Amino acid sequence: MKTPQSIINKRRNDIIKYLKTTPAISNDQLSKLLNTSPLTIRRDLKYLEEQHLLIRHYGGATLILPPSYSSEPNKLSSNKERIAQYAATLIQEDDIIFINSSSTALNILDYINDKHVIVVTNNGNILSKNIPYNIEVMLTGGQINPGKQSMIGDFATHILKNISASKCFLGVSGIDYNTGISTAIMQETQINKEMISQTQGSIYIVAESYKILKPNNFSSGSIDQISCLITDSEITEVDRNGFEKVNIPVIIV
Predict the structure, then answer these.
(1) Distance from C-alpha of 173 to C-alpha of 158, rounded to nearest angstrom
(2) N or C: which terminus of the chain has fewer CB atoms within 10 Å of its end residue's CB?
(3) Ranges in the chain, pLDDT < 50
(4) 187 vs 2, 156, 184, 241, CA distance in Å?
């Protein structure tokens, strides 16, 4: 029987709490405290590392939380869900949508409800979700990036070149109203660029506010290619004005 997502989210939030109060806590100790297997703890730590919340090391992990998360352990998770929930309201019947390797973008599928939608994605984590009958999934294929379970490389981009989407939902590592969107993983850039290029309608960036003006090495797209930013209420007035000055609407959830 599959564990409900609410239980998984609570366990991961509890891991964050324990690591905040006892930085030297081990995987085995977490396993006993949370009454779950060491394998499950390792999977949770891997997921949290992919969200840039901690760094794993032998036998444990160290937090690298943004300020908003460190003061309120449940905040980031709920921000991600609110962003995804709002983004789902923008999807219409029979849309063909691109979703990249972002966990926030992938969460949109949980809120589409009964609309018929075709989802084209390089996000291998979609295989672990319960996909309802009304959502058709097309995987790009390609080389697997083990760190994010994403599909990358020439095979993936070739597939995307032959598909036109009505909407695109991209999660990013960083977004800057002076330059555009960026990622920390070089191999992801071409996927994001191809999705942007092949989208006939709107291109939505779904990102928590702490990613605004966060520097990353690899550009995925310029600011003028973006239709809208969907983010949380912790965005500053200065940053919101910055996006609006370059004609990027900001939706705050």
Answers:
(1) 24
(2) N
(3) 65-73, 75-76
(4) 32, 11, 9, 32
